[in-house]
Amino acid sequence: MGRAPCCDKASVKKGPWSPEEDTKLKEYIEKHGTGGNWIALPQKAGLKRCGKSCRLRWLNYLRPNIKHGDFSDEEDRIICSLYVNIGSRWSIIAAQLPGRTDNDIKNYWNTKLKKKLMGLLPLSHHRKQPSFPSSTLQNPPLSPSSQQLYGEYCTYIPVTTSSFTGMEHLSLPSASYASTTPSVSQPFYQNHDSMASVSPMQCQYPIRDSMLMFGSEGSCSSSDGSCTQGREMKQEEFGYHSYNHNLLLSYNNNNINDAVKSCGGGCFSQTLAPLDYDLEDIKQLISSSSSSFNINVDENKTEEKAMYYY
DNA sequence: AATTGCGGCAACCGCAATATT
DNA sequence: TAATATTGCGGTTGCCGCAAT
């Protein structure tokens, strides 16, 4: 026998909330609190809604001090940094951003921030290439210095050294998130000819190659269309931290938009779908600069939420 | 002007964790 | 201790508005 539903689905209203419903819910909670029981609340408040729906509406929209609208660059950085360290644990990330909800952050990440970041990825990293020959790909403009530095491999993104300030070092939620040791990470670049002569600490190596090895499927990035079968790598195996190379992105500098601009606004071609990456790629991208992203994460931090949980 | 496609966002769903009986 | 109820969370869906055609 399955679990009983939390409410009678047939008799509850679904879909967008009306202003009247919002008013009812808000007034009720402001007057009585939730009573510690969301399931019973809608009936008491005179709402034909599921308790879960009420809770969600209150937390994501009606509760005081909710911030809507554009995310600041600082918020961008915090989200990115936390994402690369703890993954899609939106509630924890939201706890670091007063006034933001996990749903908001999740939506923001999925619709905007991820794309912004993908704009930082080199063209060659795109997993699904168009069917036309690679020679027709529109590579983004490279500065002369960047071409010197990385040649054909990737778009150079200006190196900076600034970082978050005033933040304590990240405390990771579990051992599985611990930094990867060189012994684990080294083979990933050492096995590449193009990397052979470059020290990992110098890290003037193509992003492409460092990226190639992640994900569970082979990447087809060779100009001749041949595929390189990357080693299959589990998140637990690698951890959320990539090895600490110094390929700093200007994203690291203060403004993610600057980084996009520095790519000539076109790190991904118009002809390519910008979202054909797996999450590890994105994490890898971020973590390539995350060594200087130091944010204190206390998983147990719930003060902000507690303010609204009567 | 009409249609289509896409992006953004609010809300829903299902599962896991936790609390209560 | 087991069963049940409730909460919390993350993934996903579907609607709406806008831009492109």
From TrEMBL:
Matching InterPro entries: Homeodomain-like_sf, Myb_dom, SANT/Myb
Record has Ribonucleoprotein as a keyword: no
Gene3D superfamilies the UniProt entry points to: Homeodomain-like (1.10.10.60)
Keyword Transcription: yes
Residues in HTH myb-type domain copies: 9-62, 63-117
SMART domains named among the record's database cross-references: SANT (SM00717)
GO molecular function: DNA binding
Keywords, ordered alphabetically: DNA-binding, Nucleus, Repeat, Transcription, Transcription regulation
Pfam families: Myb_DNA-binding
Location of this chain's protein in the cell: Nucleus
UniProt GO cellular component terms: nucleus
Superkingdom of source: Eukaryota
UniProt domain Myb-like: residue ranges: 9-62, 63-113
Main subcellular location of this protein, as a coarse class: nucleus
Protein name: Uncharacterized protein
Organism: Sphenostylis stenocarpa
Native organism taxonomy: Eukaryota, Viridiplantae, Streptophyta, Embryophyta, Tracheophyta
